[in-house]
Each structure stands twice: as structure tokens, then as C-alpha cells.
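[Automated response] Your request has been received and processed.

Submitted sequence:
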Amino acid sequence: MELFLSPLVIAILLMVLSLLWVLTKYRFGGSKGQTDKQGNDKESTISIQDGKIINLEQVIKEVSEKPVTTEPTEVTPKPVTTEPTEVTPPEPITEPTEVTPPEPIIERFWEYLNVAGRGNRTIQEYKYEWGWWTKEAEQKGKTAYTLEVADIEATLKGKDPSTTRRKIAFIRTLSKWYLREGYPKLHEETWKITLPRLPKRLPKDKGAEEFEKLREKAKQMVAEKNRVGLWIAFKLLCGLRISEIQTARAKGEFIQVLGKGRKERLVPAPPWILLAMKKIKQNGKNGWRQDRFVIWYHLSKMGLRNPHSLRHTCASQLMRKGLKIEEIKEFLGHENISTTSIYARAVVPDRAAKLLDS
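Generated structure:
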């Protein structure tokens, strides 16, 4: 069928067709929709004659029936870039630190000693030892509780055996209390120590002649109501410790005293001493029942710088007079007879030389 179209309509139609071809990936001017007699594709073209489209319907039919094919577009994959994430290292596993509880208050130790029956003098001496050990421990950057056996031995090196034994006795008592309170370390250390042997020494005996002189001097001073004479008599004739004088009480023909460990004992005394205890002022200022330091001071002024030697002289004189060592032990209030045996070594029979030389 032939249609007559004006040039303008034809131009518009061509523009539409060209756009359609572009969109469908066809080139303007033909399609590979038909084949020739040899089987080759032939292009379908729009035939225009005298301003008319002769095969318009054919072209439209081919365009509409032509499948729209799209060539696959090559997609270039973008490189996957991963930013490095900051990895937080795990926190190191730390073992729980052992927290040492605070040491017990030392005031409880003094209460413990008091309940255990220790005397006031013993507690006072232990307080001195506590101060001494605390000072030594501080110089090592420790406390008395944290001292080790090497520290204790280094501290006591070169000291007198008696002093060493006394200081070890205190720190062992302290360690027992720490152990009871749940602190075993010091107890484990102190029992590693070997106590030094005490050298066998003779007692500080002033001798029989000096005993007689001091006894007469004490009688004279007591007659003058001088309390210092009574103190000399207590030690020389009754064998009292200086700490026992303060507890002395007249009881019949005896003197009752409170000795070490709060042990009471009766000591026989001459009548003139028992009488002087009543006549000379006992308590208060200028009384004879005084603290051990006051007694020590006044005896030292008389030249008796070691008042304990009077007790040694008393025991040695009893040995010279033939009193048995077991009786002397009870007289002096010794706990162990081995303590009293030193007086047996001091008194040697004077007739031994005569027997050998005869």
C-alpha cells in the first residue's frame, strides 16, 4: 500500500526510527533480520520512492519482531580494600597478689603475759626487749615479726651468751603469741636458732670475811633506822632478789615474798630484821618498800655496784656452813637445782690441800 507523506512527516518519522535503532543497538539503515538466497543475512532498508515509503509496514514488522539483545557489559570488580582494624591486645593475666594482714596490736601481747601469770618485772623487761628488737628490725627495713633467722643471728653475734639467751627467750615468747594470733612466720624462724652454752662461771661471792663485815654494817644502820641497812640485810642474810624486797611481809619467824613467776615462798630471817621491818617506815617517801631502781641507786652509792652479789655471798656462806644444796635451792627460790649448783663449785673444802700435802 502506498502512502503519500510530506517531507516533514518523513523527517520526523526518520528521527523516531533512528532513535529506536539506537536504543535497540541497530545501525540506522538496516537489520540482519532476512537472508538472501545464499543464506546470508541481508539488510532490510526503507525504500522511499517519490517521497513515499514503499515497504514501511515491512520495516515496522521487522523492528517489532526483532529481539532486543544487549551485550553484556564487562564489570570490573573493585578491589576490596579492608582497612586494618586495630586489635586490642588482651590484658595480661596477673595472679592475685597476697595481701598481708596488719600485725596484731602489741598491747594485746602485754595482756597475754599478764593473763599467763608473768610478773610485773618480767613484763617490764619484755617491754624493754620489744623496744630493742623493734629498733634492730627497723635498721634492716623490717618489723620484729618479719625478722628471719639470719637477721636474728647477725644481731646477736658477739654478744655475751647470757644476754643472747635472754633476748632469744623473749623473741621466742613473742613468736608463740604471734602463732596463737595466726602469724606463724616468726615462730618458724626462732626455733631454728641454737642457744649458746653458758660458760661455767663462779658466783660473785665476796667471801666469808666480807660477809662478816657487811653483816655488822647492816646491823648498825638498822639500829639507826636507816632503810639502806635493811636492804643489805634482806639480800645478805635472807638471799632476797632486789625485786622481792618490795613484796616482803613479816610473817611470824619468816619473811613472805613474791618471787619470779609470782611464786610465793617463806624465808627464815633473824629477829632483828623482822623487828626492823616494823620500826622503819615501810611505804611512801623514805620507806623501805621501794622500786628496784631506787634500791639499786642507794646501794650503788655505798659502793655496792652489783647488789646481786650479796645474794651470791649469802648462798655461798650457807654452803660454807654445810647446808645441803637442796635446802639452799628452796631458800633461794630456784626453779631448778642446776641453778643452785654453781655455789657447790664455789665452795671447795679447805682441807683438800692438807690431805694431799700430808
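Summary generated for your ticket: Residues 7-35+42-65 form one domain. The two ends are 187 Å apart (CA to CA).
If you did not submit this request, please reply to this message.
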